[in-house]
Design brief:
By secondary structure, this protein is of the alpha+beta class. Helices cover about 35% and strands about 15% of the residues. The chain has helices spanning about 10-20, 75, 85-90, 110-120, 175-180, 210-225, 230-245, 255-265, 270-285, and strands at about 25-30, 35, 90-95, 100-105, 125, 130-135, 140-145, 150, 160. The strands form two sheets. The chain has a five-stranded antiparallel β-sheet with strand order 5-6-4-8-7. Strands 2-1-3-9 form a four-stranded antiparallel β-sheet. A hairpin with a 3-residue loop joins strand 1 (about 25-30) and strand 2. The longest helix has 16 residues, at about 210-225. It is globular, with a radius of gyration of 19 Å. It starts with 10 loop residues before the first helix and ends with a helix.
Length: about 290
Amino acid sequence: MTQPTPVRRDHLGIALDLAAAAVPVLPLRAGKVPFGNCPACRNNACGGRPNMKTPGPCRCPRTCHGWAAATTDPAVLSGRRWAPVWEEAQAVAYHPGGAELTVVDLDNTDAVTWARQTLPATRMVVTTRGEHWIYRGAMQSVNAVRPGVDIKSTMAYARWLGPGAGAMTALPDVVRALAVKKAPTVCPAARAITVPARVGGGECRHRTPTFLDRGIAMAEQHITEAREAVHATVYRTFLAVLSAHGRCGCLTDTHVARLFAAAQAKGESPRHCTDAWANARTRLGL
């Protein structure tokens, strides 16, 4: 896939140029964040997310699902429902994984220096604080793989800042290896988390592990993208995860550790994570 050089400067025009090159796109509002969920879909109440390889039942036509709203359909992008959103949009984002790409987001000069010494050269895009290194190939998205370095690919979005410079190369093993992180030292201790069975027989509604993994990944992203009220965001995210996944017994310490790690990366202490998790369970009667 060769990224185009958009010839139109308006956000919708850029989005249509990218979509024509098979790059799924979505609008960003002020603060470089996606537009919020509509009431019908807030906190995953709709039961799924559109534009995914294994979509849920949700078919909401609004731009309310973050990265999963990214599309290459010009009829959707320029349609009646999205037109007002583009008028309000402050930037264009794209879903790297949906275009079989991986973005190594280097957030400061130290991270850029590390990349130049460590990673194979590839296409580079200058950002406001560092650089995006773009490789051909998709992988798991992981935040804070090292100081100032995030990996954005599947289930994530990256801001479109232009086509960049240099030849794009294949995703190297050294980048894939960055996603293999040591288990964080967080509470709770490594033991199974037991919760009451769901009301109505306790049947698990998570038809495949992908459903649960998708929910955890989106919760991690929600915490990571918080720009203010981090304490409240962590609690509300824990509450949403437990509300959706806490009554059938599917949650494991691995899932909880991922959420705690995302919260601690935003400056939360292990104790606050534990308290927020306990408070959310108490609120739901788990």
